[in-house]
Amino acid sequence: MSAPQQPDGDPARAGQARAVITDGLPSQLVDTDPDETQEWLESLDAVVDHAGRGRARYLMLRMLERSRQQQVGVPALRSTDYINTIPPEREPWFPGDEHAERRIRAYIRWNAAIMVHRAQRPGIGVGGHISSYASSASLYEVGFNHFFRGKDHPGGGDLIWFQGHASPGIYARAFLEGRLTEDQMDGFRQEVSHPGGGLSSYPHPRLMPEFWEFPTVSMGLGPLNAIYQARFNRYLHARGVKDTSDQHVWAFLGDGEMDEPESLGAIGLAAREELDNLTFVINCNLQRLDGPVRGNGKVIQELESFFRGAGWNVIKVIWGRGWDKLLAADRDGALVNLMNQTPDGDYQTYKAEDGAFVREHFFGKDPRTRKLVEGMSDKEVWDLARGGHDYRKVYAAYKAAVEHKGQPTVILAKTIKGWTLGSHFEGRNSTHQMKKLTAEDLAAFRDRLYLDIPDSALDKTLPPYYKPDPDSDEMQYMLERRRALGGAVPRRRSEFKTLKAPDDKALDVLRRGSGKQEVATTMAFVRLLKELLKDSELGPRFVPIIPDEARTFGMDSLFPTQKIYNPAGQRYTSVDRELMLTYKESEQGQILHEGINEAGSTASFTAAATSYATHGEPMIPIYIFYSMFGFQRTADSIWAAADQMSRGFLLGATAGRTTLNGEGLQHEDGHSLLLAHTNPAVVSYDPAFSYEVAHITRDALVRMYGEDPGAPLGGSRSPDVMYYLTVYNEPFSQPAEPEDLDVQGLLAGMYRYAEGPRADDGAAGEVKAQVLASGVAVPWALRAQELLAQDWGVSADVWSVTSWNELRRQADECAEWNLLHPEEEPRTPYVTSRLQETVGPVVAVSDWMRAVPDLIAPYVPGGMSTLGTDGFGLSDTRPALRRHFHVDAESIVVRTLASLADEGQVERSVVRQAVEKYQVRDVQAAPADDRSDPSPAT
Is the pLDDT of residue 28 over 60? Predict the structure, then answer.
């Protein structure tokens, strides 16, 4: 027999089997008084039967509210009704002059749209986005007039991520404030061709270094970086570097952008560390670039569930004040029910139609809601605004957000994409791609904004900007509000006291070599870092960043002394507390240990690497990672870090395709140097020896943070760079620094490490060759040098190439200069000048794919043959892998002999003999030791 049914078809409560978990509420709790429980259940049934589900729902919500007040511990709801979180009776008084602010907003909205429209003039046609700012103008203006604190604020100023597609509105406000001229406005998206320079398409600090502070536009990096910036602010405060307690982080985002994994990937961190200095404002205009975000669903409700479940404070701003009286009259909850049930696709359609359509297709779905609006005209129905366009609703949300303690806040503000731009724009799927206003749209837009612009001025190609008299009440009000809040926003500063260069004594630990002890270059860098941490000025500035592989890199030695940052300290008893290298957390910890999280680690790196600008406090991030998991996984983030002009160290540890030999395809890196080369702000080095690491590190610190004496080959260089050092996990005896070390060559990218044996010492004949090697391949090249002399009478010079990338860049600069100055004395690339004085063919080898050494091939006199580790990584012994890829010492010998045969210096039969002698086709024949003592021959 089926269970008895309620009138609406729901099964009755009696006799139902109880689920283990119902909507997140535990039902396995012990019932200590079944009779009392039954009375409560029967009371609820009676309310449903006699007063309806609406009344029962209200009582249950009030009970949950009271249980929270009584600290009963009932889990929170994942989502709430599709109405404003803050009811009208709890809204604070709005302190501004709303009329003046509306007029200011009208001027900015017009100028933002006209700037994009004028950028489409004949001969330019560079595009732009009109509709995103149109939907979010009120969200920004309430912030500009009441919340966003500038750099001159006593607390240091807020840090704001502006939504990328809203940049026209930010420029338009700066134009009203006198920060930008009309000519600059007409240079939108013309950064090269416009006289005096133009305006960047989106927020790009590198292109506008005194204006934009943070780069944004889609991809989800803005939300991710904002979270880690808020966390880094707390880190600076906890370590006593700077008082950041009065600085707030704002991130303005789009609802479509929240589909990016990075957008939501770190919200748990923000809640876990109670970052109440952070507010997300999500502009929910319900549209992606091509259509609705959730046509069949409700993105605001979905986002509320995500953020509320992650532990955030959620504030929904859905309806404007015109809806308040309707909701107050909704005695039986019919309107709220209708709001809850209507999908986003329909809400988008409503705002692309008219008031009559909304009356019929929204309110008309239920006779009770139809009755609510029967006394309203179609225009009044149409004028019912969404909450994101209502100053009072937005102000209430912002005020609640900055006053909330213990949690980050997300504000979900419902808006209309293309708001006020006319029927061709508002709510249309195509609105994101629309760049121009028709003559009809221009007139209607002007009228809707009540602007004093005559019809005769509305040229269809170059309609005018609008700027009221500087002495007008609105202009004075706008400027006064910014003065009170600490000056113009956005604004970037980069003044800081330069740091001194590290003492030479700190470098000695690497320059003197390792003696008989075998040390990998990864460990060598850690040794250097430990010395630098002792420096009273530089030491506290270092920020070691580790994505959960500290012991692999030898960084666990820093745990007991530098400690791991945790705002809660260490409240547990560590399992390894009796060990020397115990895991130690502290509120003042210096290490940022990010877990298995390269994206978050890169975001932390960016926050630390730009502290010199955001806080005027230069910090030195040292982000060390599996080299395979750096550029390959987070190249977008490193590109954004370059845009933000980050300064710091990226360490690709366990580098090389064959050196991390047991890990296989997804761990063995033979291409990150090539990926790094694509980033103009990344200076890459592949050092072989510890003393090379020391010189590169010192030069990098001087360049980025000190009084830079200039490039190693002369000339100036930008400090706004990141240094990428690839270091290895293969230990060998590190040689001491040669007495006659060519430091200039080392820093420029190459120097001759070991000359080949001379003919007069009886070790070899006059046949010469040049072997260029980098990183862990230098010892293989030295072994090949021995074999060439011993077995074939060839004298090969071995060069340590510390940077294939820097050699290529310097050579390209010479080529560019020669192209543009045909009548001047040609400049010679450094790599060309060094090799044109040598004798014999050039062979290049590394633990990287051939494309890395081949970066310099166009500039090598006479050409170059390359050996590399192209293909996927494999698990095996190092000798077997190097024989498989043909980069070991014996393969280098064969390649060198083949190059000599190509030049006619040896017979082809010699190459065949070498192939057979060393059995280079057979991985089983690879010698167990494929390297030579790296100490140069004397």
Answer: no
Amino acid 756: pLDDT: 94
CB 897 within 8 A of CB 905: no
The answer to whether residues 880 and 926 touch, using CB atoms and an 8 Å cutoff, is yes
Provide the residue type at 539 as one letter.
G
DSSP E strands in 41-182: the ranges are 159-161
Q: How far apart are CA 395 and CA 661, in angstroms?
A: 58
Residue 657 pLDDT greater than 90, yes or no: yes
**pTM value > 0.90:** yes
- CB proximity list for 928: less than 8 A, separation 6 or greater: 879
Burial of 117 (0-12, 13-18, 19+ CB in 10 A): buried
Rounded to an integer, the average pLDDT of 69-96 is 88
| Per-residue model confidence as pLDDT tens digits over 542-579 | 999 998 788 888 888 888 899 999 999 998 888 877 77
Q: H/E/C letters for each residue in 416-454?
A: CCCCCCCCCCCCCCCHHHCCCCCHHHHHHHHHHCCCCCC
Maximal CA-CA distance, the chain: 112
Token code pair at residue 590: 């210096």
Half-sphere exposure of 655 (CA within 13 A, CB side): 33
Q: What is the Cα–Cα distance from 207 to 200, expressed in whole angstroms?
A: 7
**From its phi and psi, is residue 84 left (phi > 0), alpha (psi between -120 and 50) or beta?**
beta
What separation, in Å, do the N-terminal and C-terminal C-alpha atoms of the chain show?
A: 99
* 12, two tokens: 């009755």
For residue 936, name the pLDDT band (cuts at 50, 70, 90): low
Q: What is the 3-state secondary structure (H, E, C) of 625-652?
A: EEHHHCHHHHHHHHHHHHHCCCCEEEEE
DSSP 586-616: ETT--BEE--S-HHHHHHHHHHHHTHHHHTS
Summarize the confidence of residues 204-225 as an average pLDDT: 92
Q: What is the pLDDT of residues 6-26, one digit of tens each?
A: 444 343 444 444 433 344 455
The tokens of 508 are what?
């000695």
Residue type, 371: K
User: 250 - beta bridge partners?
Assistant: 160, 279
Centroid of chain to Cα 112: 27
Neighbours of 210 (CB within 10 A): 12
3-state SS class at 624 = strand
The mean pLDDT of 191-210, rounded to a whole number, is 93
pLDDT in the model for residue 218 = 63
Task: Say yes or no to pLDDT of 914 above 90.
Answer: yes
Helix (H, G, I), strand (E, B) or coil at 59: helix
Query: How far is Cα 270 from Cα 861, in angstroms, rounded to an integer?
Result: 56
Q: Which two tokens stand for residue 150?
A: 């500038």
* Residue-wise pLDDT tens digits, 328-365: 999 888 999 999 999 999 998 898 889 999 999 999 99
For residues 306 and 873, give the distance between their C-alpha atoms in angstroms, rounded to a whole number: 39
pLDDT at 192: 93
Q: Give the pLDDT confidence score for residue 21 in this predicted structure.
A: 37
Residues linked to residue 18 through DSSP beta bridges, in sequence order: none
How far is residue 311 from each of residues 75, 301, 368, 570, measured CA to CA in Å?
11, 15, 37, 21
Instruction: Classify residue 557 by its DSSP letter.
Output: G
Question: What whole-number distance in Å separates Cα of residue 319 and Cα of residue 723?
Answer: 50
Q: Alpha-carbon distance 788 to 756, whole Å? A: 9
Confidence at residue 445, expressed as pLDDT on a 0 to 100 scale: 87
Phi/psi of residue 146, each to 5°? -140, -20
Name residue, tokens 């009540």. 450
Q: Which two tokens stand for residue 904?
A: 């006619």
| E strand residue ranges, 339-430 | 409-414
Backbone phi, psi, residue 699, to 5°: -65, -40
